[in-house]
Amino acid sequence: MTPRNNESEDSLLGDSIDDNLKLKITSKDPNWKPLNNIVWRNVIWYLLLHIGAIYGFSLAYVQAKWFTLVYALILGQVSFIGVTGGAHRLWSHRSYKATFPFRLFLIICNTICGQNSIYDWCRDHRVHHKYSETDADPHNSNRGFFFSHMGWLLCRKHPLVIACGRKIDLSDLLEDPLVVFQREHYLKLFFILGFIVPALIPTLIWSESLWTSFWVCSVARYCSQLHRTWLVNSAAHMWGYRPYDKSIASAENAIVSCLTLGEGHHNYHHTFPWDYSTSEWGWSLNVTTMVIDLAQKVGFVHDCKTVPKEFVNSRCNRTGIKRE
3-class DSSP state for residue 262? Predict the structure, then answer.
């Protein structure tokens, strides 16, 4: 495991912004209101998705077979690694390196989750880290829980999000053929891997109703995965404790960590974004770290970046809760 590489981490976030643009980045611009910038196509899509998910959960309760419920749960957990360990820790932060087979596994899992292509996901996430809690942050938590949770997906982006996003370096993503392929064929891949295949497996293997399988394993499972991810942007930026840096909004939230396989150690992550584990506690409430560590033991992962303990303690004493 290797410590932080300052130059490579900083380069992912692009060049410094010019003074004129910096002056415009405030915690909340009163002249830009989400309600005046609604994208009705997205509103209708998410409304229908949630109606379908509610129906899917009702079928899970009254009709689905036990095998189907277990399968949907396992699929949801395994595929979620494609977001936490893939789009987030590998491709957004480059906190470790992975072989082609493991990257292929991650990109398949990521596509099943259906949270935009890795290229788009990483662009938004890198902007979020560089401009957190400002109008350049795609899901600025200063605009409230609903906006940071999912409202930001229902309206047009603030002009500063677009302007600052153009300054983020994404060239490293274009050097990965898997990322490029997914980006070019994303909608088709998501439709097949996110909706068709999850519904077909229970039908073909243990004779579950295709109707039930689709609403439970595809729609309800997909919707629940979205909300789990969104909690990192909303709840983990509002509630919890801040032992590493008291000046930032992101917080340590154990409930979010449990629901997101380890992404709720958020005060640590925003303080040390290059750490592959997103926390200093190893496997504690951090299934994603467990998966990456196991993959490293069998040779699929290498060059995991970590933060020396003395560096963490020094930062806590300077900006967070003092340690002995």
Answer: coil
Rounded to 5 degrees, what are φ and ψ at 170? -120, 15
Question: What angle separates helix 287-297 from helix 66-81, to the nearest 10 degrees?
Answer: 70
**Quick check: is 149 in a domain?**
yes
Kindly state whether residue 21 falls inside one of the protein's structural domains.
no
Note down the domain range covering 228: 6-16+34-319
* Burial of 174 per CB tally in 10 Å (0-12, 13-18, 19+): exposed
Q: Token pair of 152, please?
A: 């930001």
Question: Per-residue pLDDT tens for 29-74?
Answer: 777 888 889 999 999 999 999 999 999 999 999 999 999 999 999 9
Distance CA 113, CA 121 (A): 12
User: Is the distance from CB of 49 to CB of 223 less than 8 angstroms?
Assistant: yes
* Mean pLDDT of the residues in the chain: 93
- 250 neighbors 267 (Cβ within 8 angstroms): yes
Say if 22 falls within a structural domain. no
Q: Which of 271, 294, 267, 299 is nearest to 283 (CA)?
A: 294
Classify residue 91: in a domain, yes or no.
Answer: yes
Which residues, other chains included, contact 146 with Cβ-Cβ below 8 Å and sequence gap of 6+? 234
Model pLDDT, residue 6: 45
Task: With cut-offs at 50, 70 and 90, classify the pLDDT of residue 82.
Answer: very high
Residue 104, CA atoms < 13 Å, CB-side half-sphere: 4
pTM of the model: 0.92
Q: How far apart are CA 216 and CA 172, in angstroms?
A: 37
Mean pLDDT along residues 88-107: 98
Where does 179-252 show beta strands of DSSP type E? none
Counting the structural domains of the chain, the total is 1
Nearest residue to 248 via CA among 256, 232, 236, 259: 236
